[in-house]
Amino acid sequence: MSTFDLSRTNYSLFALPLVWTVGFLPHPVKLGVLASEGHQWNNVQPRQNTAEAAATLDKKTLAKVQRLEGAHLNGTETFPLFAAALLAGNVARLPVKALNTFAFGYLASRILFNILYVSQQSATVSWTRSAVWFSAIGANLWVLVKSALLISS
Q: How far apart are CA 75 and CA 29, in angstroms?
């Protein structure tokens, strides 16, 4: 009988498509919000859709669309750092438990980040979101440095 043991089996690379998906998800949600407001998608200039819709959206809906776009962009901007850190950790043969903890901890941080980003309507929540972001970036940098130290020794 096999068990899901994070200290013995390296599941960390499974986090790559999961983290990418979490970063992508705000985009189709944004499309849904825009469609529900009657916006026709412009696939010729897709990066102009939010700006084009701004003239017809109420302030609250526009703010939500902009936050969804921001969460999506942040996910795509931070994914390469995560992928590099995770791959470096695997190449350096960091302990399996550390790799799994990093990978799935980062995944959890991206889910929390998206929830906070999309739902934020106060400075307090925005600072909490930023703290989650800095913690996740710090974890990536820690794994990169730890990997470099192992590889260089």
A: 14
**Model confidence at 70: pLDDT above 80:** yes
* Residue 143 CA: distances (Å) to CA of 8, 14, 82, 86, 103: 19, 17, 9, 7, 10
> Cα(129)–Cα(135) distance, rounded to whole angstroms?
10
Say which amino acid occupies 46: P
Give the per-residue pLDDT at 10: 96
DSSP run (H or E) holding 119: helix 96-119
Q: What is the mean pLDDT of the segment spanning 90-97? A: 98
Per the CB < 8 A criterion, the answer to whether 110 and 19 are in contact is yes
Distance between CA atoms of residues 82 and 144, nearest Å: 9
What 3-state class would DSSP assign to 45? Answer: coil
Per-residue confidence band for 5, with pLDDT thresholds at 50, 70 and 90: confident
Tokens of 30: 């944004």
Residues 6+ apart with CB under 8 A from 100: 6, 7, 10, 11, 12
CA distance 78 to 22: 12
Instruction: Report helix angle 59-91 to 15-24, nearest 10.
Output: 160
